[in-house]
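thread: overnight batch results

M.L. [08:02]
morning all. the overnight job finished for the chain we discussed friday. pasting input first so we're all looking at the same thing
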Amino acid sequence: MNLLTLKKEQAPMRKEIEQCYELIHRLGRGVVYLGSSRMGPGHPHYSQTLELSREIANLLDCTTWTGAGPGLMDAAITGALQAKKPVGGFKIGREAGEWSTSNFHPYLPSETYLACRFFSARKHGLVDAAVRSSNFDKTAVVALPGGVGTLDEMFEILALIQLERIGSELPVPFIVMNYDSFYAKLLDFLNVCEDWGTVSKGEVSSLWKICDTNSEALAYLAEFYDLPFPDEGKQETELRTAHERVP
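M.L. [08:03]
and the structure it wrote out:
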């Protein structure tokens, strides 16, 4: 393959990446949610994610970004819409869930998401949407329970933070939601990596925040951005009440 052919083949991907950046510029940076496409409305993690997204959208007053797919991505979108805050997404045609055969989202306006042909473009979008360009930006990455795709996105962003490719000037909070100890064995594995010396002691734990509950995540973000936040007991009561209202 010669250089000219390579450039021609890369042109559509570059254009799609530019479209991702244009969408972010139009809707604003914010909180990026990574999570399973298979945990639907009947799953307890769905309702927990919906509550979390709604409360974070209200706390940070920012755009909510997802892969615009089903499952926990849908829960994050729904929570932000309940808070009446903007949402944006980078959809991929082949998702491991119910909307896998269409490039169209079932209810989001077409101007709020981009249907990506290239995974690399989607990843560019999900990373850039969380990058803070000024002190006024309130962004975060929230990793929810998920499978292979979620882990891929989590560790790519973790590596970018580790290598100071993002967050070197303006740190970006990275939260892992360990609902029902979902990530306990993954965290054990990372401890084994420390024992073997493949990562330094405390290296990974310094790059993200593990949260077992929504109130813990909200309190962490409030402290990170120096925002007022109700005491934990009151917040837990409010979230339980909201949970009871979610069908």
